[in-house]
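User: Before I run my own analysis I want an independent prediction to cross-check against. Here's the chain; please return only the structure tokens and, at the end, one sentence I can use as a sanity check.
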Amino acid sequence: MVTAKKPAKIKKVTPVKAKPVQAPLPIAVKPEIDDKEKYFPAVGRRKESIARVRLFTKKSTDADTHEQALIMVNGKSYTEYFSDVNLQHIVETPLHKLKSINRFKATVLVNGGGISSQANAIKHGLARALILFDVNFRRKLKKSGLLTRDSRAKERRKYGLKKARKAPQWNKR
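Assistant: Structure tokens:
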């Protein structure tokens, strides 16, 4: 005896109205400099920090600071962002080596890592951007070691240990 199967009921699918897509929130603060202005982009890295640098030539209309560079880090002045004077000197290093502290202005978007590695990432990015501006700067920057990426990073943790090399306390008896 063969029984006939009943046809499955087909549910009517009502179309879902699409919601308007919102633009994603900006991850980083947009710099206050016109994007129409010509710039030299570069990326600097150190540990987990990544710095995206845009180097501009300074114009006569820009604010004049004799002893400080005009560098904006994540929408703030680099002296505000790095409260420690030593970190400020690290950021300025490529410009000091070329004796052109007042010749350029830069905007930097930096994220990841700690404050010290961010300063070193900015230093690396600035040095790379300066080479894009003028290839003759390469010799001086290379000689002072500013173009070499510092590849030191935290060592991975191994199983059976508490940290990369620290073992749990061992007792003989």
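Sanity check: The mean pLDDT is 86.
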